[in-house]
Amino acid sequence: MARDTLKLGAVLIGVGDASGTELWRDPQVPLDASVNIDWYVKQAREAEDAHFDFVFIVDSQYITPDFPNHHLNRLEPLTLLSAVAYATNRIGLVATVSTTYSEPFDIARRLASLDLISGGRAGWNIVTSQDPGTAGNFSRSGHGDYDTRYRRADEAVEAVQGLWHSYEEGAFSRDRTAPRFLDPARQHRLDHRGEFFSVTGPLNIQRSPQGQPPLVQAGTSDQGRDLSARRADIVFSFARSTDEAIELAQDIRARAQAIGRDPDELLFIPALGVTIADTDEEALQIERQRTTAGDIRRRLAALSRQFDGHDFSGYDLDAPFPELPRSEDAGIRRFHEDIENARRAGVTLRGVLEAQALGWLRLVGSPETIADQLQHWYESGAADGFNLFVQHPADWDRFRAKVVPILVERGLFRGQYEAETLRGHLGLPFIDNRHAAAGQSNPPVRHLEPIQN
Ligand SMILES: Cc1cc2nc3c(=O)[nH]c(=O)nc-3n(C[C@H](O)[C@H](O)[C@H](O)COP(=O)(O)O)c2cc1C
């Protein structure tokens, strides 16, 4: 069954994001990969041929010239996934949309549209946005602190899900003989009034095939964990070890249980990077060659993003990591905790950069070695699946051609699709329209009677 096998996502990062900034220099990667829809479609079809659960598009809405190349020039996730939807049949399509810089009505409408276009394959990665500079692009005076952004995210999700309940199944009766286009008794207003949003509803698009597209959450701060426990179907993470991944899963499952959710509903899917060759030694050699001096400048820029743009270029790389004022609201909290621990232990700036590059699961080795590690993570309860960052085409090809068949042979991954929707692939239950389930306790929107001829 769907839950008995591991889940695979492919993160499409074009010319290379912070996880692989020099990817654009690989001659097999088109120089315009991040804005080239043919490239996204090609990679999505390849993922679909290997029966991946979904492709995933990360996003943000603020840059400086030092940001990773993919961030500088990339397609907007829902627009690009609509094109990918039309060129694929089965694979799930997970889009990142920020709750800090979007309104629930827009989010609900755009995701329902993608779900309709794709026949039930849309998913939403809920983010609160980590770059305070984003405020400057959205007519805001400030980015908001963690508590505020996560409270807003929670309320946004509640409103979005409420809007997705606007229509019961078959509400658009489209009966030419009656004549009646809409059955008003099966259309429902939302009337949401909260701290951040006022949303009357109903949504102006019918119930989509999944009704409720799956929700993903990746923040791992205290507030992020609570949001996952309350709202997420899937938790993405950067985990460095099985211990760390197990702690995260146990903690979020406990939080979910405490508020009455079935903790086993949640899927934990850490990020994965791979370098694959015929032998472990060969793979290690390739990995070493790829770590070039150019990386230092890029890694300093990535570090700067965690400190709201602080310029690290003038610092001595081999001196202890400097004590810096930092904005509480910038970056990823876990990275800051790591940096603070390193600073206290007297680790140098270079040491911090090297440790940050190792801040997630990177597997280097032969296809068997990679498959063994994935099996170990899966069977130890550290992961329900993996979110593979699609970096060098050679590794992507080997992962599909060599690693996936081993996983299939071991009974760890599907050899063919058994479902048509993303919910189906992930083994998530279908959620009935709450008004239908509740016997229409909410008042339907009042409409004029249809004109009788
Ligand atoms: C796999 C993964 C993907 C993420 N994708 C995005 C993204 O596309 N856009 C974004 O703004 N943040 C993204 N994030 C960041 C988180 O959503 C969150 O904002 C960040 O981890 C800071 O919150 P925290 O301190 O609660 O962890 C991602 C995180 C992970 C682990």
UniProtKB/TrEMBL annotation:
GO terms for molecular function: monooxygenase activity; oxidoreductase activity, acting on paired donors, with incorporation or reduction of molecular oxygen. Gene3D superfamilies: Luciferase-like domain. InterPro entries: Diverse_substr_monoxygenases, Luciferase-like_dom, Luciferase-like_sf, NTA_MOA. FMN binds at D59, T96, Y150, S221. The keyword Cell inner membrane does not apply. Belongs to the NtaA/SnaA/DszA monooxygenase family. This is Monooxygenase.
